[in-house]
Amino acid sequence: MKILVANLGSTSFKYRLFDIDDTQASLLANGGFERVTDYTQCIESMLQGLSDDGHLDTGEDLDAVGFKTVLGKDLSGCVEANDRVLEALDGFKEVAPAHNPAYAEGIRCFSDKLPNVTRVALFETAFYQWVEPAAREYAIPKNWRDIGIRRYGFHGASHKFVAERSAELLGSEAIAKRARGLYVDGPTSYHGPPLRVISCHLGGSSSVTGIKNGVAMGTSMGFSPQSGLPQNNRVGDLDSMAIPYVSKILDIDIEEAERQLNKESGLLGLSGVGNDIRDISKAASGGSKEAQLAIDHLVESIRHWAGSFFFKMGGAEAIVFTAGIGENNTEVRSKVCAGLEELGLELDQEKNEKTRLGTEGVISAESSRIKVLVIPANEELVIAREVYRFMNTRQISLNN
Ligand code: ADP
Predict the structure, then answer these.
(1) What's the structural domain count of the chain?
(2) Do 178 and 63 reside in the same domain of the chain?
(3) Strands 318-322, 118-122: parallel, antiparallel or unpaired by DSSP?
(4) pLDDT digits (tens, 9 = 90+) for 319-362
(5) For residue 203, how far is its CA from the centre of ligand 1 (angstroms)?
(6) Mean pLDDT throughout 141-154?
(7) How many CA atoms lie within 13 A of 151 on its CB side?
(8) Would you say the CB of residue 328 lies under 6 angstroms from ligand 1?
(9) Shared-domain flag, residues 96 and 188
(10) Is residue 294 in contact with ligand 1, taking CB distance under 6 Å?
(11) Quick one: 40 and 189 in the same domain?
């Protein structure tokens, strides 16, 4: 079955084309466009390119297109990307302004260009459907909770891939299988030795998730993707009382406060240098105290959430780094793991330095009881597999 996975950023469009069956998924092609202003143009160029390279004929020969949709109002799981999905994205467009409108536009574009090809959405929130209420509710009045204010969680496909791959790498096929089948079977019974993984997705946006035996126990991300760790230019956790206070003292309205929190905060806001950790690291090496503070604050937040999951899960067998910063930034990895020898975690600095640029590896010392892994992100594979299953069964996956 030929499945195209479309990854729509607020300014980028990336894709991967898979040929997938019950036993394997082969990547036929991948590519993307930066600084996108017109998705239709991108989709046309992509289809032309895939046709020129002999992977597709007109595009109508695709079996399905999968979308990594972020946050739907009253909707999660893996579902056909129809009007209900567009309504759900629209219902929370203010909560995920960098993501929801882009996906809605992308889905509409594919529907216009390739009307006969099934579109399927896998929501990023799906991985968190088994997080217990005590860990996902906020202490707010009932009428706030009734309109959906709660912790949802994002980067679900990425953390799910970490759940699967870390279990494979650490030799637990039973847990890898449990994690792979999660959206169909739910958390199946498991009585073997525990595998508690602290998964750190550190990229343009970042989150930490605690995963026990393949199932998410909780996440640093909250109601919106502007929460938890500091993001590239978006704020992480912030006391809610700061907004009315800033609004009064700086004399800005709530929309302007929101804009500054969404566009001028996070690593950019603290460093004053940029939103890319490479630029920030360079400035820190050149003596910028603000740039160093941004890196240290990121490390502090990762350790805060990792520590929380360590306690919640009663320990950890592994900590995993994934996504742009997690796969490449040796300083962040080293600082996150520093001083934890008494807990049984010891980094091998040489392996840490060598494991970069999309390579997978174990970077802890041989003697380290807690393994430290680098796993290149592969959200698209998780989406392709779920879309394949959806196409075969036409059943939506479990969702709350
Ligand atoms: P997203 O998909 O959310 O944009 P990515 O996982 O692609 O996130 O991560 C992008 C971020 O990762 C960049 O903003 C940058 O901070 C960091 N990054 C990417 N490549 C490298 C690299 N080679 N070295 C260090 N940091 C990198």
Answers:
(1) 2
(2) no
(3) unpaired
(4) 999 999 999 999 999 999 999 999 999 999 999 999 998 899 99
(5) 5
(6) 96
(7) 24
(8) yes
(9) no
(10) no
(11) no
